[in-house]
Specification:
heterodimer; A: 284 residues; alpha/beta; Helix Hairpins; Pyruvate Kinase, Chain: A, domain 1; 2 domains; 5-stranded mixed sheet; elongated; B: 155 residues; alpha+beta; ATP Synthase, domain 1; 9-stranded mixed sheet; 3 helices; 38% strand
Chain lengths: 284, 155
């Protein structure tokens, strides 16, 4: 029973005059589409405001994260066998393919060389990947994306990551390119032990393992913070675009429905007139 | 919190390398906190900073090194010869072979913006917390607070 009901309500061509939808049906549909448009356009406004904020916060975070990653970029560190992946997304949807894009990157990666350890931030990517690599989750974080993430959030994630053993922590996130595009990237950061065993570190004067450990812990948090901010900006811009598209589509739909509504109304009036006229004729 | 261990160590004895004015040479500096970028690869003449191995000055062609910051004042000698002073709570400093320098701090505050009275009352509160702390973790946390406030006073 339920399925039949679903089918009729989806196609929405109930019996009416000449197989057309009745006026009432079109009116209801028109009203609901109008409401959807209102909702999507206000969601667009909200995410536009959030995006401006996220973009503003991204600027210093980029400098900061770039500074933290400079040591790893200016020197070659071996990636090591034991990789720990950190996937950064958020809890919230309705933002185009941003989460599934990251999920796809992971799936491709997993198919190539299986991911063994993963720390997942945000419910969306967690749900996407749980089927393929759910058993590799070391821990997951949620409640991401409601409010702009703080440095303390990054510290929490870094602390969790550091409680596991790894040679290299690979941080995967959507990097913000511009308002209409973002791209998923994976950034490797070596562990303290990995830095220490690498020849590159000997160019640096006066370093002992304590300094390296502190440095690595702090810069991991910095890079995670940067990743969170990149993710936030890309997500808000993606949501803004998704909602703008939805609003435009709803607008088009409203135009079409309005036309159909007017035509049907005209048809009803014409039919009534014919009925009246022919009735009057019959009396003569 | 492992990160707090960075802050936990009090400033070691000063091994101040009294840097003399560089001969017109500058190096690119990146200086920022998570929410504020003060310098982004812009050229400066000299930087003095507090680290776990003591205060030291950085001039162009400094030997590459990695340092952990302790609470204290970072002075930056800008290209135009002015000296800017900032208070930093903790963080890292990296000097690369190509002379570029990154200083990343958890919190940065211009010394001129520090409210002395607020610092004094904060220090008192922290000291009373330290004396009343019962377990090791609380004690360490309070000690850090005292350290930060004391170095703020000094700034």
């Amino acid at each position: 029973m339920a399925t039949t009901w679903l089918r009729t309500s989806m196609t929405l061509t109930p019996s009416g005059a000449r197989g057309m939808a009745t006026l009432k049906d079109i009116e209801t549909r028109l009203k609901s589409v109008k409401n959807i448009k209102k909702i999507t356009s206000s969601m667009k406004m909200v995410s536009a405001a959030k995006f401006t904020r996220a973009e503003k916060a991204l600027k210093p975070a980029r400098v900061y994260g770039g500074g933290a990653a400079a040591l790893y970029e200016k020197n070659e560190f071996s990636e090591g066998e034991n990789k720990l992946y950190i996937a950064i997304s958020s809890d919230r949807g309705l933002c185009g393919g941003i989460h599934s894009g990251l999920g796809r990157t992971f799936k491709a990666l997993h198919a190539e060389s299986p991911v063994k350890k993963a720390v997942v931030v945000g419910d969306k990517v967690k749900a996407i990947l749980v089927k393929t690599m759910g058993d590799t989750y070391l821990s997951t974080f949620n409640n991401v994306g409601k409010k702009p993430s703080s440095f303390t959030d990054a510290l929490d994630i870094a602390e969790e990551v550091l409680s596991h053993e790894f040679d290299s922590a690979e941080i995967a996130y959507n990097s913000f390119v511009n308002v209409v595009s973002y791209k998923p990237i994976i950034k490797p950061t070596p562990s303290a032990a990995n830095i220490e065993s690498n020849d590159a570190i000997f160019t640096y004067d006066e370093v002992d393992s304590e300094v390296i450990r502190c440095y690595q812990e702090f810069s991991l948090a910095n890079i995670i913070f940067h990743a969170l901010k990149e993710q936030e900006a890309s997500e808000q811009s993606a949501r803004m675009n998704a909602m703008e598209n939805a609003t435009r589509n709803a607008g088009e739909m409203i135009d079409k429905l309005q036309l159909q509504y007017n035509r049907t109304r005209q048809a009803v009036i014409t039919r009534e007139l014919i009925e009246i006229i022919s009735g009057a004729n019959a009396l003569d | 919190m492992a990160f707090r261990s960075i802050v936990a160590r009090s400033a070691a004895l000063c091994r101040r390398a009294m840097a003399t004015e560089a001969s017109g040479n500058t190096f690119p500096l990146t200086f920022g906190s998570p929410y504020k970028a003060i310098y982004d690869n812009s050229n400066v003449k000299q930087v003095d900073l507090p680290s776990t191995t003591g205060h030291f000055g950085i001039l162009p062609q400094h030997v590459p090194t990695i340092a952990i910051l302790v609470p204290g004042t970072v002075s930056i000698h800008t290209e135009s010869g002015e000296v800017e002073k900032y208070f930093v709570s903790s963080g890292t400093a990296t000097i690369h072979a190509d002379s570029s320098v990154q200083i990343l701090a958890e919190e940065i505050c211009a010394v001129a913006d520090i409210d002395e009275n607020a610092v004094r009352s904060g220090l008192e509160a922290a000291q009373s917390k330290l004396s009343s702390a019962s377990n090791e973790a609380d004690k360490a946390a309070a000690q850090i607070e005292v350290d930060v406030y004391q170095s703020m006073m000094a700034a």
